[in-house]
Amino acid sequence: MELAMGVRPNHAHPALVLFALAVGAFAIGTTEFASMSLLPFFARDLGIDLPTAGHAISAYALGVVVGAPVIAAFGARLPRRTLLIGLMAMFAIANGLSALSPTYHWLLLFRFLSGVPHGAYFGVAALVAASLVPIEKRTLAMAQVMSGLTIATVVGVPAANFMGQVLGWRSGFFVVAALAVATVTLVALYAPRDAGDPKASPMRELTALGKSQVWLTLLTGAIGFGGMFAVYTYVASTMIDVTHVSESYVPLILIIFGIGMTLGNLAAAWAADRAQSRTVIGVLLWSAAALALFPLMAGNIWTLSLNIFLIGIGGGLGTPLQARLMDVAGEAQTLAAALHHSAFNMANALGPWLGGLSIAAGYGLVSTGWIGSALALGGLVIFLIAITLDRRQAALMPAAAE
After folding, report:
1. N or C: where does the chain have the smaller number of CB atoms within 10 Å of the terminal CB?
2. pTM (predicted TM-score)
3. Does pLDDT of 309 surpass 90?
């Protein structure tokens, strides 16, 4: 049976390879989401307001947006195992420096550098995961790697938030650095050894940027995912100022979100291997509805818990979009896979920014739900345009052949 992407694994069992890659995803997920949950604490420590502190989240996202295409384009020729090890080493160093940041502006710089390897790591890890299984199971294999990120929202993020409350927010970044070092070791032991692609070049990878379907799929993620981040970034502050519960409840709510995201990730991947476009449409509609309910459910801890779980399920959007990018990118697989995470982190920057504008304008913390719902619907509109154009092009091809 053919392998999906043509990279032959070494003697390691595919489950060990997926586990090694998932540990890296766990480290990335912990730092990405824990930064949001720790926002009130480092804002207080560094003497800045919440919207200003949110710029540290956006700085990380900007690092992903910049780093993913550059590293993917220039690193496509390297062996994937070598590239993964180098990316995780850089990630470990940057997170260690984040923990040592003396001022807000140094924190911005180190969060940017922490984000640089993020997208390329996930992109290359997705290609390696897809290479281990038959093509009809590739989305689920990629979801198993991504489960490291979603499990991070169940375990890593609440733990980092708890440590942030007890030991200070810097401890969370130290833990992430240690996880990254563990990933370097596991990838070196288990990841498939390949010779790289001698035909790869920045120009070949950049061919992906000339395809309208690539751009439309990226925009779907950049806009559609923004809604989840608009709410998640400020959920700790909402709980304290709107729900009026103790800070000690924040880790519990983050666990509930993570459980929803983990279930959504696996369920959407399973569905996407059977009906990719319908799965994307369904997840975006789900997210729009769940986010619209946030302002109505944020006032009570029980209804908030249910709503956060529903919002978390919408996190299943990522893997189906990753698979679609691989379908429409042609030979530029590395860049397309990495750009997916640039789009994801454009959403990570856009959501908190728009949410912060709404809060600063006086509409309140719960207004992030309406912002989020609008973003999810915006992503849906873009995706519907993409599949409509795709079908028209497919219909024209037989006529052109005649």
Report:
1. C
2. 0.76
3. yes
